[in-house]
Amino acid sequence: MKYEHHLFVCTNQKSEVGRDVVKALKKEIKKQGLSKKLNRALPTGCLDECKHCKKGCGAALIVYPEGAIYGDVQPDDAPAIVREHLLHGRVVSKLLLD
Ligand code: FES
């Protein structure tokens, strides 16, 4: 099966936020019926965006094939990322890093 997108979430920070973001993304992908089009959100190591990925800030994540990097992502941001980016192809500007 060929997926349209792959998501990798940094879980390298000391808090649980990255793992919570992964769980929230998986739940939202399933809820929006995209499981067959998208690879699930996968935990990964440091994405070199550590100032946007620490306790109190949230997690960094990257979406391929675009290579869009989001920072300060909280579990509550999962619906917007899945709906806007993955479903409609629009980046979520407020979370997008340069
Ligand atoms: S610790 Fe998450 S990007 Fe570096």
Notes on the structure:
The chain has 98 residues and is an alpha+beta fold. It has a single domain, classed as Glutaredoxin (3-Layer(aba) Sandwich). Helices cover 26% and strands 26% of the residues. It is built from 2 helices and 4 strands; from the N terminus they run βαβββα. The chain has helices spanning 17-31, 78-87; strands spanning 5-10, 38-44, 59-64, 68-73. A 4-stranded mixed β-sheet has the order 2-1-3-4, covered by helices on one side. Helix 1 (17-31) packs across helix 2. It is globular and about 30 Å long. The model has no long low-confidence stretch (mean pLDDT 89). Residues 10, 12-13, 46-50, 53, 60 line the site of FE2/S2 (inorganic) cluster.
Tag the structure with descriptive keywords.
Glutaredoxin, 4-stranded mixed β-sheet, binds FE2/S2 (inorganic) cluster, 4 strands, alpha+beta, single chain
